[in-house]
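Annotated sample (chain length 110).
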Amino acid sequence: MLVIINAITRKRIQVAENDLERKMNWNGAIIRAKELEGWRLPTDKELKQMNNQLHEKGKGNFKNDDYYWGCEKESEFCDYRRIFYFDNSGGVGTYRNMWMSSYVRLVRDL
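Output written by the structure step:
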């Protein structure tokens, strides 16, 4: 099981073993996350933790040098879209056009 831990709160978050079946736009990512009970899009902070705690250590089979969808903050509706560029130098979070396709890796609270 893939798990990230918030360094401040010590909250544990389970990370899905694999990306969703294909790249998708923002609306597709939101719809797919809602279809899978208990799972959600990660926050931008969780995406950074996934990069640092898993990807940079060779865990999780993340796509290198590509984007993953996330939310600005934890919310059922995920009103503010974010993307995170996974690489081996800490990654970069930013905004992206909602029609662009990106990978999706869901998380859930433990």
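Annotation: The CA atoms of residues 43 and 73 lie 5 Å apart.
Annotation: The two ends are 11 Å apart (CA to CA).
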